[in-house]
Amino acid sequence: xxxxxxxxxxxxxxxxxxxxxxxxxxxLEEAGIRADLVAGTSMGAIVGGLYAxxxxxxxxxxxxxxxVDNDDFASxxxxxxxxxxxxxxxxxxxxxxxFDFMQRKLIAVKTVTMPHMQGEEKxxxxxxxxxxxxxxxxxxxxxxxVALDLVAGESVVFTxxxxxxxxxxxxxxxxxxxxxxxxxxIIVDGGGPFRVPIGACQDLGAxxxxxxxxPAFEETHFSTGLDMILRSNTIxxxxxxxxxxxxxxxxxxxxxxxxxxxxxxxxxxxxxxxxKATRDAIPALKKLVRWRQSLPYKAKMLAGKVLRLG
Length: 310
Description:
The chain is α/β, with parallel strands linked by helices.
């Protein structure tokens, strides 16, 4: 889509639901809309890194499938996903359910007694295999990955150095993977306060920002007080996130709330939801882009600047 606007993509976090980004990119490509720069948080950083390395949606999806489909990856995340209550009628499923229940209990104990459950290599090695030894300066388009400094409570934005280092920091889920320690800074996954990295897109120089906001899993059953605390925290983060997304020029929200953040087996379904949401949004997006490129819009903006200076 020929235009004078510098288009930026802000790809939000969301775990397995973030695989919807692949469908978003596919639909944008079909519509002739290609970003000039990209920023990502957590899974958005992984997909954004692939896009910046090679902005071919079909290749991005093939690489993502290979990343999440190996047995070690799937077996690690499976215990985090609540089992379907209907499976309890199947004897084999009941045995599996007991095993998963015990694993989830072990995960809960580790979370409150250990700084992290997995070694750094469990995340870094798959990322290194996915991206190879590449630096930000080697990418086809500019990329920013966004993480959180737990000490200062501020964002940490990576735009130079090793791509794997930047994506690891942005994806290091607290209590699951070790944080990155840099002097006084303790750097973790940025998906809490910086879920959709619109500010990083602005800092890269975007004139028009398309934000992809991955909605949270809609939990409706609360068996413990901790479940209720976590749900309350999720609602607070959602409200903050909507305020941040209001700064974007256009927001796409794939309908993936039914999928758990760790359910990577639902990757294809999430990708399809991202594609549909974007296809449905393309007419409005193109209309807005045309308006932003038009002489009347530019004259309006110029007049506003003159009035402010006066």
